[in-house]
Amino acid sequence: MSLIEIDDVDGGEILSLHQRILSDIREKILSGAWPPGHRIPFEHELTAEYNCSRMTVNKALSQLAKAGLIERRRRSGSFVRQPQSQAAVLELHDIRIEVEALGLPYRYERLERVKRRSNAEDRLLLGLSAAGPVLALEGLHFAGERPFALEERLINLSAVTGASEEEFLDIAPGPWLIGRVPWSEAEHRIRAMAADETIADALDIDANAPCLVVERRTWSAEYPVTHVRFVYPAESHTLVARFTPSQG
Under a CB-based contact definition with an 8 Å cutoff, are residues 173 and 164 in contact? Predict the structure, then answer.
């Protein structure tokens, strides 16, 4: 987070109110009185509380957002910003562990579960040479009250027959698979995208907001196991890779 710098404003009274709003909100955030995800009072509430103009409040909130202390959401107001998470590029990590490392409660919500015969797109994503049964799942991972990542997953039921009867209501499919199916190879693809309306609604972000997309395929021996796509709000997620020079 960057330091907050207070700009010069004509008029001592306006400057004093501006400083006071910045100082009061910043103190509540850094003291933990307002934890990550806490909603900041609306602009009209702050205007009444400090007996000042809405422009003064808006400028203070904009400066807090620029400093990385709060985030402003369309139609929802301003909130204490969640800490930015980091995920290793070369690991098959459990999102629960990632969220809990931020000091936030984790929750998974299954949105859709469809068992079907694979179509052409399914076979392309999984790398299947012939049609077969697949399980298509969609779910949301939460950090506190905020959506953390949208997950869209295909499971090859010919390789993972036990998934056919699993509802994935109490556990996300990722850790379930890691605990039951030994994987021998994985492939990651990472790209950026702008959120369409469906993704924006699911993640509670603006349409066309930048997102980070991580797609992964895994195999067990020569058998494709799963294809998954995670979509994260770009501002709250970082991918990290640590490696050493190759030898020989």
Answer: no
Task: Name the pTM for this structure.
Answer: 0.65
> In degrees, to the nearest 5, what angle opens at C-alpha 213 toward C-alphas 211 and 216?
170
Nearest by Cα to 39 from 66, 61, 17, 16: 61
Let me know whether 69 and 144 are in one domain.
no
CA distances from 5 to 2, 18, 172 (A): 9, 11, 43
Query: Considering 27, 58, 80, which residue would you say is the last residue of a domain?
Result: 80
Query: Which residue type, as a one-letter code, is found at position 169?
Result: L
Name residues whose C-beta falls within 8 Å of residue 109's C-beta, 6 or more positions apart in sequence.
139, 140, 142
At 210 the pLDDT is 95
- Is the pLDDT reported for residue 28 higher than 80? yes
Residue 119 tokens read as 């179509």
